[in-house]
């Protein structure tokens, strides 16, 4: 169940990366918050690792954007 949720999340994330820089920055902020709360509650370490990896990769891709979320939650 959770792996399918994760897959859907990845698909939505990739689709979002096509959007504008502002929307990408907003999504980064939201993912940072999700990653932070998941880490605090210590639910699924694998899912946390995936979220962190996605956050980092999107940060790398959105370097050219004027607004980049700098939340080091992971």
Explain the overall architecture.
The structure is a single chain. With 74 residues, this protein is an all-alpha fold. The protein has one domain (2-64). 72% of the residues lie in helices and 0% in strands. The chain contains 3 helices and no strands. α2 packs antiparallel against α3 (45-61). It is globular, with a radius of gyration of 12 Å. The chain starts with a helix and ends in a 13-residue tail after the last helix. 11% of the residues are buried. Mean pLDDT is 55; it is low at 64-74.
- Oligomeric state: single chain
Q: Which percent range describes the beta-strand content?
A: under 5%
Largest sheet: none
N- and C-termini, Cα separation: 24 Å
Q: How confident is the prediction overall: mean pLDDT?
A: 55
- How many beta-strand runs? 0
Low-pLDDT segments, ≥5 res = 64-74
Helix content: over 70%
Overall structural class, as computed from helix and strand content, comes to mainly alpha
Task: Give the number of domains.
Answer: 1
- Count of discrete alpha- or pi-helical segments spanning 4 or more residues: 3
């Amino acid at each position: 169940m959770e792996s399918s949720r994760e897959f859907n999340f990845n698909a939505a994330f990739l689709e979002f990366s096509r959007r504008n820089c502002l929307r990408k920055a907003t999504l980064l902020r939201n993912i940072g918050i999700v990653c932070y709360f998941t880490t605090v509650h210590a639910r699924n370490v694998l899912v946390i690792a995936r979220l962190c990896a996605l956050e980092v990769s999107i940060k790398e891709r959105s370097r050219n954007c004027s607004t980049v979320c700098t939340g080091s939650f992971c």
